[in-house]
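Lab meeting notes turned into a lecture example. A postdoc, R.K., suggested we walk through two folding results consecutively so the class can see how the record format repeats. The first protein's sequence and structure tokens come next.
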Amino acid sequence: MSVDSGSQFRPLIELDQGWEYISSMFAKLKRILEGLPEPQFSSVEYMTLYTTVYNMCTQKPPHNYSQQLYDKYRAALEDYVTTTVLPSVNEKHGELMLQELVKRWTNYKIMIRWLSNCFNFLDRFFIPRRSLPSLNDVGITCFRDSVYRKVQVNARVTVIGLIDSERVGEQIDRALVKNVIDLFVGIGMGRMDAYEEDFEAHMLRHAGEYYSRKAASWLLEDFCPDFLVKAEECLRRERDRVSHYLHSSSELKLVEKVQHELFEPLAEILKQKVSFEVKSLVQQAEYTASNETSDRSSGMLEQVLVTNIIELHDKHMAYFNDCSIKNHVFHKALREAFDVFCNKAVSGYSSAQLLATFCENILKKGGSQKLSDEAIEVMLDKVVKFLTYISDKDLFAEFYRKKLARRLLFDPSADKEHEKSILTKMKQQCGGQFTSKMEGMVTDLTLARENQTSFEEYLCNSPNVDPGIDFTITVLTTGFWPSYKTCDLSLPAEMVKCVEVFKGFYERKTKCRKITWIYSLGTCNIIGKFELKEIELVVSTYQGALLLLFNSMDRLSYSEILSKLNLTHEAAIRVLHSLSCAKYKILIKEPDTKTISPNDSFEFNYKFTDRMRRIKIPLPPVEERKEVIQDVEKERRYAIDAAIVRIMKSRKVLEHQQLVTECVEQLRHKFKPDIRAIKKQIEGLIIRDYLERDKEDRNLFKYLA
């Protein structure tokens, strides 16, 4: 042994000499790990080995053997795994192979950890300077290339087989499976590629196939309740497997895979079953409505159909609410099934109209069922939840607003708390914009009552002002309430005076607002002096104005009535029919027929009588459906225009199909816009110079500021 010139006291260690000693220590380590009779390393042996490596790496060139030791370290490990580890694993099969693999992997990790400590100088100085893989990474790479890649398929198949055995109720060695899974994870050296590609993907596919077969067999025996109980138990067990031996990152993927295989077939059958039940209910309701009079057909439809549909929805939702499974697949299936009813006309009535009519029936003191306050709240909750299935929410809102206006103005028995409650529920479900006008209507009535109180105080404080009759006025805000047809009715003198008095009061209160009188919404109480007795008649303003004409004239022709009241032909027919052809014949019509014609003449029926002292004479109902639909279509055109302009203002240039798609996306929470309507509005905006087509590409639009 020569002396290193760089150190007076350190002997020079040649490569072969040093490696011979290191190899002897390596051989002793292998014998210890193999369980052969061999004494443990003494501290002197350990320090001698460490010092030998240190000295060989710190000698001056050409005697610095850092690179050679690094290469020999790799070669020694490759030789060990090839000649010792791989043969011992290959000669065994099944669980014994897994046990041997886990044993060899555990011993191998001990070996590379012990050697890395002895070769620590390489890891601390030589490897970082040369940007080489660490000693630990070199060791794992050797095992991966020489052992793992040759046995991982058999290991995976065996582990998946054990998992399948556990699924059918057999006991397995969970600790063994966990150790094998740890090998798949550890071999990736901090990355999950090996685990995910070599094991997890195959395990998920196999689990999917297993539960697909289970779902098919269960569906032959059970439907929702029992099926869901079994599915819930399966999901619990799969989560338990993840917690005991699979990697935690697999839980979400495994649960989603199991849910997909179990729930997709059930959801499809559920969709078919519910669709059939809904279709049957629709057919039954149509048959029931067809046997009723036309005046009651809509009411029968909403009572029979909506009630049954909600009960059906509750029944199927109860299946999923009673268990812990909350899966979007079932809700999607229910939505698609209930779309049959929610977005299809039934006997000419849209589901939006039927649902609005149903709400009105419930809000009128519990409807025909006379529900309690608690039951009304529960039913309103169900109605609002069911509203999510309806695409044309704007149509429902308009029908509901029309009916809400009637309840607020003409039904003093309507419960204002329930009205506010359902508006709050709809606001939470559909947003503040959906209910803003309805909430404004409720607020308007409170302000109107305050306004009436101020008017009464004004009359008390102004003795010279006398309206002549008891007079109540309700001032409404135009933007909140539905649109009503206005008519410049020629009021009788008795009514003109009170109107002028209120105008004087209101003009003193505010000069910035204009009053438009909606006589079609007014009511009045008139004392009819008949031969047998006086009867109080509760009539509309139109009816009252017409009856007051007979105070000065005994007989009036149809044309004279039109001239004196300035009525339209349609309004005159409704009013005259209600007073001369309906239940209460206050007027005598000549000729005595059931229809009104321009050649008719009318006179007051002094011989009319009734057992009641006070009677209400309603006007014939007006079919408002067509008018509501027209109003909604008009509002939709405005909404489409606004959406297109918003999109183009932000994008400046956009292709036709993309513009249509974004427009549909913006409006889908209100209604499902028709593609043809969007195209029509685009053409209209081009004509009005909001947009223009690109001269070279006709499918490209540009925004004009």
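The second example is placed directly after the first for contrast:
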Amino acid sequence: MRHLFFLLLCGSALTAALAAAEAPVPAADVARIEAAVPVKATVPPARPRKLLVVNVCKGFYHDSIPYVAKALEIMGQKTGAYAATVAQDVSAFQPDKLNEFDAVCFNNTTGTLFDDPAIKEGLLRFVRGGKGIVGIHAATDCFYDWPEFGRMMGGYFDGHPWNENVGVKLDDPQHPLNAAFDGQGFVVADEIYQFKAPYSRDMLRVILSLDPNKTDMKKGGMNRPDGDYAVSWLRNFGEGRVFYCSLGHRKEILFNKPILRHYLDGIQFALGDLKADATPVPLSPRAADPHMGFYEGTFSGTDGKTVKGEARVIAEGGGRYRAVLLPAESTAGLAARFDLSSGGGDIGTPLDVRKTAAMDGPKGVKFEYYEGDWDKLPDFNALAPIKTGECDYFDLKPRGRDDNFGFRFTGFVVVPADGTYEFATNSDDGSRLYIGDKLVVDNDGLHGEQTMSGTIGLKKGAHPITVTFFEKGGGEALRVGGGRVVEKTDDGLALEGEVDGVKWKGTLKGDALQGAAEGGRSFKLTYVERRSPTLGAQPPAGAKVLLPWEPGKEPSLAAWTNANWIPLPDGSMQVGKGDNKTREGFGDARYHIEFMCPFMPSARGQGRGNSGVYLQDRYEVQVLDSFGLVSQDNDCGGIYRVAAPKTNACLPPLRWQTYDIDFKAAKFNADGSVAANPRITVKHNGVTIHEDLEIPAVTGGAAGKEHVTRAPLRFQDHGNPVRFRNVWVVD
């Protein structure tokens, strides 16, 4: 019977049982906590404060939970900053009970703690109305099915690459909530989280983050291309306050004096007693990526002539970069455009795959073929394959039909040397790539051709590789590639390339991009920042402001129909669930629209910062991160199947860009027939990319098939967190 009882304690039942049977903190450890907690409050409370500490778990149970609860109890008693009440169930969230408190602390909570809409709304109202919320460690590992909670707390857990000694730096050494650290970073041993959307420094004041100079930054599972690994933050939420700290997995954290002081100061901020600046400090584009952007300088040809020119450095994920070199004038021995690359997992570079673990084994992979109707990759372990076999590479030809099928390919990828390797899949529909048991590329879901990539550190040898794929309907595609990422040295990031038989070598270091080739060819360029000349343009008299922009203030979305789009503290509106259109329709009109594409270096093509501006709900001007590309009609500024931009005027991602559009609606005869098609002029970042262009028909994704005289402006949701701001129209 004891064995049966143990088996029944699984999933949430197990975690609930663990919480209910929560062992008291040993006396010796209580003494260590008492010795570490502050002796007095940082500021005296304005009035007696009450803090609700919630220990409820529906997922993974942390052994540190009773330690955190005990530390917060002792700290409140010792300092007089608050009185703590510890709750082991969710009954305390009933509005009449919750309102007795000044703040609530989510102590390593996991899973969906409650799903009652009234309780959810009560918690949001509690914080928005002027009270506080505190999150310790796993407080970001709950309520994934409740987006408002994620936005309130500041983000969601996305793995923990580190559980070891790491360096922590003070993003704001003078901030009141960092007073415990005396202006100095520190080293601590704990499980360190990384965060996914809605995490963004545009919404948060991050005050502690990982110090990359004192942390192993080659760990598997690191998923943030911007290298932004926050540890503590605060924010305002309505009239209320939020404090979160990811430290708190290990019990030893509760014996650490500075961290407990940091906890106390964060709690006093959430309670409303410790005044602190919660204004978000966005991550600068160069902090997100130090190399991406424009470079200007000079080129020299084989005749010794020096000409001006520029380069556009594109981040491609996993430490891979591509520099597009563009001399402004022709000179002997120089191509008009040439690329240098730092290496890495380009989708066009096939892998060396073998059927066995021997590095010189037979080339190819084994496959299992399945059939079924799926919206995402199924668990192939639970299915019986229709057939099995071998093929030379990851090939869809053995399929038995064109829709509703899947493959699992297995083999070994040969790694010629120790290093960091990037792998990529391009697929329609979903795919994943594993090295051993490690998920490296997640390209799952229903979508058109889309490229995703990921990196992993590998030793020389043959490593197990698995690629899974499914196709639901429509077109099908699967490509797999990869390669070693060139490591940075003291001389910078090495670049190389070949054009017209000329081999170039270059380096990218700091603000300098330089290179040389035989025959005296060379270039020497320096980083520059560019911005649109119409950025921040004020609406003229008589304009209709569709999205007002005031820095530091969330914009009103009153002119828009989709309440799921997200107003942000930087004054912008972020893509939410579904497209968003204006309540009012427009005819002939002049539009000013500002937008920013997210930083998605591992994505490719239409998966990289995609949205769209639909004039009259019918004619799309594409929004996409197309920085540095040779523009097509589906790139940024393109009008699908009508015209590519005259020139690529894109700025890099994370920079605000502008569209200034003059649109003339279709004209009709008295009998309703079309007398004149719509015409459009588009200036992208001040550069004319379409001039009085005729649009003969509606574009893909249009709300209707016919021209109209008036219809709304629509922004597209393509699944990427594109932002818009300062949108106005003269109609």
